[in-house]
Design brief:
CATH superfamily: Jelly Rolls
CATH architecture: Sandwich
Number of strands: 24
CATH topology: Jelly Rolls
Radius of gyration: 18 Å
Order of helices and strands: EHHEEEEEEEEEEEEEEEEEEEEEEE
Strand content: 35-45%
Largest sheet: 7 strands, mixed
CATH class: Mainly Beta
Strand order of the largest sheet: 1-3-4-11-6-9-12
Length: 277
C-alpha cells in the first residue's frame, strides 16, 4: 500500500508542477490482474482498484492500517467501471455490472474480486474510510441511484450527478460516493466552485480518450489556484482546504468520494468568481 502524506497549504504554495503531481495525483492506480491501494493521510481515506483476470483478488489487512482484516475498523465503497464482475464478501456474491456500486460495512472479514470474463475484466474502484460501527452491506444498482440534474448548456456544465453511496440510499459512517456524467458539449464540473472544510474529496476521472483529450483539474486555496493535467483513470485528491473543479477538452465522467465530519451533500462553502485568483 502506497502512502500519500497530508500537505499543508503553505507547502502547497511553493510546489512546482512535478511536485504537485507527485503529492496530489495518482497516475497508475489501475493495473490489469492486480489490486492496488493508496493511503491518503488526509482523513485516512484509502483509494484503490482491482482488475481481476485469473484467480480472485483478495483484499486483506496489513501494517499500514494495523488490522487483521481490511474492514476490522473501516467501511468500503466499490464502483465497477468495467465489465461484469463479482465481489464476494463473507461468502455472499454480489454481481456488479458497469456503474453499479457496493457498500460493505465494518466487520466484513473476507473480500475478494473476480471478473465474469478474464478477457474482458471488471474494473473495480475502491474508496474506504475509518468507521465507528458496522452498517449492513448493500448492492446499489444504477437505477436506484439518486439522480440530480445540474448545469446549463450556456455554462457548459450540463451533468447528471448519480448519488450511489449516499444517505438517501443507505446508512454509512462517513463515506459518500457517486458518479457524475457530463453531457456531450459540456466540459465543466463544479463551477462556480466551492470548498468544504468539514471533509476531503477524491476524484477519479474516466471516459477520457487519452489520444484526443485531457482534463484540467483546478485545486488549491481560492486565491492560490493551480492546475493538474489529468488523463483517463487517474485520481486527484483534494484536502479540505482546497477547491476541486475541472474542465475538459470535451465531456467525461468522474467518481467522487468524500469522507469527513458531515454527510450532507449540499454542505459546501460556495465561492463567487471574484474570490478566485
Amino acid at each position: 500500500m502506497r502512502i500519500l502524506r497530508d500537505v499543508h497549504p503553505d507547502h502547497y504554495k511553493k510546489m512546482d508542477n512535478s511536485e504537485l503531481r507527485e503529492k496530489f495525483l495518482i497516475q497508475d492506480l489501475f493495473n490489469v490482474g492486480k489490486l492496488d491501494l493508496v493511503y491518503l493521510q488526509a482523513d485516512r481515506m484509502i483509494v484503490g482498484s482491482a482488475i481481476p483476470t485469473g484467480s480472485p483478488l483478495k483484499l486483506e489487512g496489513g501494517k499500514e492500517i494495523a488490522s487483521d482484516y481490511f474492514l476490522e475498523r473501516r467501511e468500503l465503497g466499490i464502483i465497477n467501471i468495467g465489465n461484469t464482475g463479482t465481489v464476494t464478501a463473507d461468502g455472499i456474491d454480489y454481481k456488479l455490472e458497469c456503474k453499479e456500486a457496493l457498500y460493505l460495512g465494518r466487520g466484513v472479514k473476507e473480500i475478494s474480486f473476480k471478473s465474469a470474463d478474464s478477457n474482458k475484466p471488471a474494473h473495480f474502484y475502491l474508496n474506504s474510510a475509518p468507521a465507528h460501527t458496522g452498517y449492513p452491506s448493500k448492492h446499489i444498482t444504477f437505477d436506484i441511484a439518486k439522480k440530480v440534474e445540474a448545469g446549463t448548456a450556456e455554462e457548459g456544465n450540463v451533468r447528471v450527478i448519480n448519488q450511489l453511496i449516499h444517505p438517501a440510499i443507505l446508512e454509512t459512517c462517513q463515506l459518500l460516493m457517486g458518479l457524475t456524467e457530463l453531457a456531450p458539449g459540456s466540459m465543466w464540473n463544479t463551477m462556480p466552485t466551492h470548498t468544504h472544510d468539514r471533509r476531503m474529496e477524491a476524484y477519479l476521472y474516466f471516459n477520457i480518450d487519452n489520444e484526443k483529450q485531457v482534463v484540467f483539474h483546478m485545486m488549491g486555496e481560492p486565491h492560490e489556484l493551480k492546475q493538474i493535467v489529468v488523463r483517463d483513470r487517474q485520481v486527484v485528491f483534494s484536502p479540505s482546504w482546497s477547491i476541486h473543479s475541472g474542465v475538459g477538452t470535451r465531456n467525461y465522467s468522474f467518481i467522487w468520494g468524500m469522507v469527513g465530519e458531515n454527510q450532507v451533500f449540499t454542505d459546501m462553502d460556495h465561492l463567487s468568481f471574484d474570490k478566485l485568483g
